[in-house]
Amino acid sequence: MLEAVRLSHKKQLNTAFIIFRMTVNNIIKTRRTLFMFLISSSTLLVALLYLVLRESDNMGISGYAFFAYIMGTLQIRGILLLLSVFYGSTVFSDELDRKTLVYLQSRPVSGWSLLLAKYFSAFAITAIFLVFSTAAPYLVLMAADSPADIIKNLDILGIDLLVMLLGAAAYCALMLMASILLKKPVLWGLTFTLLWENTVVNIPALINKFTLLHWLQSIFPHPAATNKFLSLLNPKPSSVQTSITMLLILTVIFILISGFAYRKKEFKLN
């Protein structure tokens, strides 16, 4: 009996891995990935532009200070959100659009395994782009100050990468949930992340804790980007331990809701 259960679980895992691999291959071949690569490359392009301007205009700002600025503006409030929305909300809805969900549901794999395979596909691609868009400008800008600064500030880079991965995990889970519960999840996701997250996170008191961005910025080693009016509100960050715990809990909650919604929902493929 135990051997039969073990073999069944192994078969489920193998099938889920096949779906994961197929999904990643399909994602890589889309025009969306080319567009996301260009978006991810913007941090590197901005870093290179800074080097050109610094040589010609004798800019006083250091490479590290400019890296912190890029991370606090482009990266955490832009690229992280866009990547998570476009991959987290489409990795499942694409199957509906292509009418291939029936084929996947006919595979000998449980709904939970299928959903997790889809989730980790979105997370993997998002994480790869985020690592690139974080590490590439870091190497360029730290070497511009001094090659020794690359080693000196590795702890900062490590925290940046941790924040990006936690953010990708949480946002991809949220967007996966949206793709199952809502129509037009990309539009909903863009509205939520670029408007709600980027605005409400600046409001003090309890309401800013209803954003994932609050918990991410609480462990982010760079100053938060905001306009002059919102900066006067001066919201207080939460503790690092609480922030990491909340991000992990919310990620699990979003995945659980996605799984139960997937089991209950009847998908129309016509």
Can you lay out the helices and strands and say which pair or pack?
Blueprint: H1 2-28, H2 31-40, H3 42-57, H4 63-88, H5 93-97, H6 101-105, H7 111-145, H8 147-152, H9 154-181, H10 185-200, H11 212-218, H12 228-231, H13 240-264
Helix pairs in contact: 1-7, 2-4, 3-4, 3-7, 4-7, 4-9, 4-10, 7-9, 7-13, 9-10, 9-11, 9-13, 11-13
Question: Can I get a quick summary?
Answer:
By secondary structure, the chain is mainly α. It contains 13 helices and no strands.
Topology, number of strands: 0
Low-confidence stretches: 1-5
DSSP helix fraction: over 70%
Q: Structural class, from secondary structure content?
A: mainly alpha
Question: What can be said about the biggest beta sheet?
Answer: none
The general outline is globular
Strand content: under 5%
Mean pLDDT: 84
Q: What is the total number of structural domains?
A: 1
Total of DSSP H or I helical runs spanning 4+ residues: 13
Order of helices and strands: HHHHHHHHHHHHH
Could you tell me the radius of gyration in angstroms? 20 Å
- First-residue to last-residue Cα separation: 42 Å
How would you describe the overall organization of this protein?
The chain is mostly helical. The chain has one domain (2-264). It is 78% helix and 0% strand. The chain is built from 13 helices and no strands. The protein has helices at residues 2-28, 31-40, 42-57, 63-88, 93-97, 101-105, 111-145, 147-152, 154-181, 185-200, 212-218, 228-231, 240-264. Helix 1 packs across helix 7. The longest helix has 35 residues, at 111-145. The protein starts with a helix and ends in a 6-residue tail after the last helix. The model is unreliable at 1-5 (pLDDT under 50).
